[in-house]
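Entry 12.
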Amino acid sequence: MNPDIYREIKRRILFLEYSPGQILNENVLAREFGVSRTPMREVLYRLSWEQLARIIARTGTMVTPIEFQTMMHAFQARLGIEGEVGRLCAELARDYHLADIRSIRQDCSLLTDRKDPGALVEIDRRLRRVVHEAAGNPVLKSVSDQLYTLTFRLWYVTLDKGDWQQEVREMLEEIEATLTSMEAGDGIKTAGVRRGALMRHFDRIRAKYLGVPSEVKL
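Predicted 3D structure (tokens):
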């Protein structure tokens, strides 16, 4: 599989440059990237395995629709994974991990008065990278990344809605709470912080996507 083509098409899907439900033509993509159909087919099969695309016989490859029920199930699965990652990262973190999170916190604070969804996404990814690196469990990271990818578009499609400063405040609070509990070396507390942040994140997305108040439980 061609990793550069894979990363680019995956990026287009995640950042909604390819709309949910859009049909991707294998021949057109092969011509665009200057490759034969075989490596393009390998990329599309990989994206299908990741549930970002769906191969339809005699039609082509469809970008997977954003289905809220599927996203909800993925978020439920993430809760347990992120809690365990939180526990491990607090127990195993080194000083340079904490320093990296302080740097991320500083960069995030600069977004309060500058609306830049892409920059906020990068802040979130940087925090995830540090937390996973500190946790030191590649299997947990792989599962967590797969579930994160599955739910990312639902977040991104709602990120431009509502109060931007609230989005930044929520991210800052997540970073601050994660950092504080990691500095204390408290694995149980950090696990709760990571799960709680994810639950609030999901509630905000649900409120924006479905118009359902966050206090209403589904």
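Annotation: The mean pLDDT is 91. The first strand starts at residue 23 and ends at 24.
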